[in-house]
Amino acid sequence: MALEPDQTSVDSITLFVALLCSCIVIGHLLEKNRWFNESITALAIGLCSGIIILLTTEGKRSHILVFNEELFFIYLLPPIIFNAGFQVKKKQFFRNFAMIILFGAVGTLISFVIVSIGTMQLFKKLDIGFLDIGDYLALGAIFSATDSVCTLQVLNQDETPLLYSIVFGEGVVNDATSIVLFNAIQKFDLSHITSRIFIEFIGNFLYFFITSTLLGVGVGLISAYIIKKLYIGRHSTDREVALMILMAYLSYMMAELFNLSSILTVFFCGIVMSHYTWHNVTESSRITTKHAFATLSFISEIFIFLYVGMDALDIEKWKVVSKSPGTSAGVSSILLGLVLVGRAASVFPLSFISNLFKRSESDKFTLKQQVTIWWAGLMRGSVSVALAYNQFTRSGHTQLRGNSIMITSTITVVLFSTVVFGLMTKPLIRLLLPSKHLCGGVSSGSFDSFPSKLMTDLPLIANGDAEVGGNNIPRPTSLRMLLATPTRTVHYYWRKFDDSVMRPMFGGRGFVPHVPGSPTEPLLH
Amino acid sequence: MALEPDQTSVDSITLFVALLCSCIVIGHLLEKNRWFNESITALAIGLCSGIIILLTTEGKRSHILVFNEELFFIYLLPPIIFNAGFQVKKKQFFRNFAMIILFGAVGTLISFVIVSIGTMQLFKKLDIGFLDIGDYLALGAIFSATDSVCTLQVLNQDETPLLYSIVFGEGVVNDATSIVLFNAIQKFDLSHITSRIFIEFIGNFLYFFITSTLLGVGVGLISAYIIKKLYIGRHSTDREVALMILMAYLSYMMAELFNLSSILTVFFCGIVMSHYTWHNVTESSRITTKHAFATLSFISEIFIFLYVGMDALDIEKWKVVSKSPGTSAGVSSILLGLVLVGRAASVFPLSFISNLFKRSESDKFTLKQQVTIWWAGLMRGSVSVALAYNQFTRSGHTQLRGNSIMITSTITVVLFSTVVFGLMTKPLIRLLLPSKHLCGGVSSGSFDSFPSKLMTDLPLIANGDAEVGGNNIPRPTSLRMLLATPTRTVHYYWRKFDDSVMRPMFGGRGFVPHVPGSPTEPLLH
Q1: Where in the cell is it found (chains A, B) (predicted)?
Q2: Residue of A122, A195, A385, B504 with fewest CB within 10 Å of its CB?
């Protein structure tokens, strides 16, 4: 057919889409099995097809698409992060905001320092190519980005809401922190660190954090305002959905354009959109956006895992490494060890500190809960792979010895942690947090229990809101009160501000006249 | 920010997404205006931003993305065509199947012959560069691809169901026919046409048509079977939606891979999916897929029109043309004239023929209806532009004199027909088919009145089905009956087969146990 310019790209896309379909079907079939999940399935299928491609091309190549950072950061990551913000239980998230920031930002910094210093000290003994200080710091950032999808699939949001929101929120903040750190490292000249450069680095980091958040909130509010003012819902569900998708993506691309942290921007854009914009649209738009965003995120996730599995067998990189398998195995083991230690060094002390601030015994983290949080952050995933490719390859190929060892070690760590640690997650959590409803099964273990929970819990949240805004919590009237329960007080004043200023302007639950406008309603009633 | 490899692509994507958002908002604001529609708005915004970019880059370039056929045929076209199949009123479509094929396939062939011969004769008198026979035939195919979006926006599906289904169905079949013709032309050596080559050509054409249809139907049925057998719905809405999207896309890519007509394949895949698969999923999946597919199609359409508007000012092409503005204007006028004549030569005779076969006077096409059908196919759109780029550019640039005249003329014809003919459509149809509810307004003129109509009409279709399958039509018991009302008889036996074999196997309305599984239901009840 003469129309397509490139037959190989058609081949690759067809094969890749077919593999994605098979991942979904096989993942579904294996769902009842308590050891497996979609990520591991996709990795396994990726590995298998890598082997098959390797055999059919007689060892020339194992992947069908060259790893493309642009693809990853411009197309695959935004839906995942946006959906995370869009589906997060906002009340839980903001209630535990301080703790999430503590674990997500401070914890990541601790892990970053430990991995950086650890590699600097331990790699000296191994015969690997030249790595400069920037490379070591980049390794710290790369191996501080956790992938908590596995754990979230087995944690029950209703039974352990605090644990769930901490693991979830930390995962997002942690990804953002790692990427911001990584960017800062690549930007700054780190060959001679002075205190001035260090302060500049911290300032830059905070500037990134705050402006990115503000941009995301801003774009989210604009979308809410436009949809509320124009009453687009009265006319067209498709137009509303299109506008929400495009505005969300716009926030991400604007952050990229202004050199901000696009991951944070789109996350907060998602939160604002689900708090305001989502309530301004028709009911069919609500259902559509909720599931369409979750689906896009789901496809992106499988895509990434499938890709990582396929790329793991890239022959070019292993050729360089195979001359010294011992070195490579050593590097991988050191990295895995540092990941375990770094995570422990952040979770247990930080839990201890946060326990000090809690007066009620039941609010404190038990050792078992601490172990769960520690375990939840041991897996390394696609963000690590993408960052490693960025740091250690220049044109997608890896000829330098040191660089290819780093790439293969990253892949080894990601595969090992996802598969081995991932497979152990369900049994471990079952052991640590025994519960009737916890493991596997239809209601709690399914991949999208997450968004569906959000929906079934809507009345619950509504009750909760009334509770917070109205009766159960004593009104904070003094400064003493603010000091005693800072988060709750901030939350109280935020709700007052939200009700009196924000919602009347941007819409939100109960502040927008009911818009039926949806021809699907008769179908459902 | 070090992460993105290419700052210009971030610039372009951001600007493009921002423009898409503004198209939606401005299109919404102009909706009450009876002259405008989203296509014209997108074209106008594209032209304006083209001018601004031209001024800011000091005349160097006018577009932010180079026209990319791969982008068009691999990413933008599939959602539009799939959605067309998914949302089509199947009963109307199949009832008028013979007439749709008559107008869509035979009509396109007539128009193709007239444009090809016309250009061959008339271009000789103009001083344009060398064009060979393949170029003339390609022009015939390029200018036979109509764009009936404008007309569909103002036709009322409920008041003129026959007219609507003919214009709509013809639009799809016509696009497919043009693309199949175009491919056949590029593939065959046309410098010496013998009768053997001609027969081969016809055979190839039929082979394309039938295998493409079968592939689409096959993939659609597989998706229905998988979802029905695995009861995926019980577990996950996202997984179902993801599977439907991926399988639909897979059918398109497989057709590309096997050198078939991907446009036909994905269209029939859409029809089968809406007939079987759609009934096997949960209610929230139904709402989500319906609106998500419509939204994707909507975004792709605006994207294309915005792009065509922006590309219209590409300075490189106009530089070559500006040396002989008279020639270029002549070519454009000839092409426009041939489009008008070719369309007339296919619509009026074919209407006459189809009227001969109708016994009831009320079923026959009146002159006013014939003029409406004629007018509906005068607009030329993105398919023409994409085909013209394919034929007359090799690397996206146009240095050859003849080629650049053809490209600029194509753009002129597309702009002129979309804007001038498009603006005249609403008043003209109001004049030809006077009706209380017809023009503009909230209910009928909106861009997605189309899918929403589908939903409100569901009970109607159900009644209609009962009517066809059961009581009103006498059971055809003899061959005489079959000859008298062939379409209805075929439809009757198809329904029997569907009810006894297909639906029990692949699911469908009433053949799948009710799957609540949707946590959104409580929200809606």
Answers
A1: Membrane
A2: A195
